[in-house]
Structures are given as structure tokens and as C-alpha cells.
């Protein structure tokens, strides 16, 4: 099977979405890194930036929807699918955590290392995907996931570790990663995995009848609520929108972060509707190659031997996966036989008759 086969990318749109997704995430890491102060802090309120990003996403989703429909139809869809709107609070809360931790972790790691460490989510995504969609991954798919994970962690072996003696090497290597930032990375990994797969489930199963931009609007409304609660919990709700705080955000670099992250939100929903969560992890891994080169050119961050080896292994894992990709269609795209099979398994896995009933009705 060719690397860019019809099974891997069933339509031209799916390939464009794949490339756009990678490009936007590469931009995000670089833009956030460029916005840091010399002491690796930020001169703006990062939670406010995330909140404004969600507001821009909401405006974009509504604008796209009303281009072909009306505001009355948007309201009608929202009322009709209000239960789905409530379900979107789960991925919205997880994405809120992920987006805010992004700033914290990029202040501690360079973009290449940051994206490498995030690849721990690959195997986690595979497990969650199997449980939620009842799709057992093949040996080749698991092999590619495991190879990808090895490639993503190999850069960090003995990296930035000060060796006192040969006897202390392993001890130093272990202690060098037992810090709060690794915990934050792990929180990002799990929030990304569960949010991505659950979002795909809503788009392709429970919320398959909802227009994708209405679904996006549900997500962003809940995200705005989550980020507002974060600001309130930190006692910054009023301060975040004072003149000085707003002016610190009204800079080209920060506005670019907001615009780029808003585009990521729209493209991610298209990615999950047209492709799947497993391929999304490989897109994230491929970003490593481009991020490493661009960070070397822009910030002077060297591409050491560990990074080079990791990139080669990630490339090999991606090729392995392309030989036998996961195909996860929306219910509306399934044949009657596939619908009946998937409806039974999903309904059973979620412990709810709604999954089976919905599958039989589309």
C-alpha cells in the first residue's frame, strides 16, 4: 500500500486537513516559544489567551454555519441537540486543561522536546480508541504505535543529564525527569488522549446527526465556561480584562497565537470527522521532524544525535502504520451490515441503548 493511499486518505479534503493540522500545530509551538520572555515566563495572561481563542473559535463556527443556514436554524439545532451540548463539556474541560498546560510546558521545554514527550499519548490513544470504538488494533498497528513511542522517548535517554560517575548514571537519569513539568506533560497526554477520542466518538456516534459546526459551537461554549471558571478560581477574572492585561495581548505575536490556535480547533474537528484519533497521533509525530528543523533555524536549538535517531524511528513507524491504517467511519457512512455491527458493540460498550438505537436509525 502506498504511503498516501486512498484507504489512508479517502478524499482530497482529508489529505488537506491532515497537512493543515500538522502545519498549524508546528506554528503553535514556534509562536508560543517566540512569545516567551528571556526568563521563560509570559508577559501576558495565558488563560485569557486561551479564553479569547475559544471565543474566536465560537465566532468562526457560527459564521461558517450561518453562511449556508440561518441563526434561527442554529438556535433550533442547539435546542434539538441540547443533550449533546452537555456531553461536550467533558472534552471541553479536558481541552481546557491541555491548552493551558501547553503554555506551562513550553516555558520549560523547547518545542522539539515538548512534542517528543507528548508522544507518550500514542499508546494511550490506542487503548482508549479500542475501548470506546470496539475496534481491535492489528499486530501491525500496535507494532507501529510501539515503534513510534520508542522513537519519541529515545531522544531523552541520557539527555541533559550530568553524570557524576558511572555508578550514579542511572540514578541521575531517573531523578532528572522526576519533576513537576513531567507531571504536567503526563496530564497533557491523558487529557489529549481522552478528549480526542471522546470528541471523535461524539462526532461519529452520539452526535453524528449534529452539523459539525454546531458541534464545534457546543465545544467552544463549554470551553469558554471552563476557562472562565479557571480565571475565577485563580482570582484573575476581573484583572484579566483590565486595560493593562488587554494591551499585553494586543500584540502581533500574541494575536497570531490566538488566531493559529483557533484554526487548530476548527481543523481538529474536521480531522476527527474525516479521519481518526490514531492517525491524529501520527500527524503529531510527523510534526517533530519539521519542528526540529525550524527550531534549529529560528531559535538555534541544535538537532543532536538523539533527535535525529528519534526522527528516523518515527518516520519508520509512520510508514509501518500506512501499510495497515485504522479506518473508523461515521455511522452515516456505514453500510447496513457495518451499522448493525457497530451499533451493537457501541451500545454495549457504553452501557446505553441509545448507541444501538441511533445506529439503527441512520
From TrEMBL:
Its main location: membrane. It is found in: Membrane. The chain crosses the membrane at residues 12-30, 42-65, 85-101, 113-133, 140-157, 177-198, 210-233, 253-272, 279-299, 305-322. It is a multi-pass membrane protein. Residues 334-362 are annotated as: Disordered. The keyword Membrane applies. Keywords: Membrane, Sugar transport, Transmembrane, Transmembrane helix, Transport. It holds the Pfam family Nuc_sug_transp. It comes from the Eukaryota. Signal peptide: none annotated. This is UDP-galactose transporter senju. It comes from Aplysia californica. The lineage of its organism: Eukaryota, Metazoa, Spiralia, Lophotrochozoa, Mollusca.
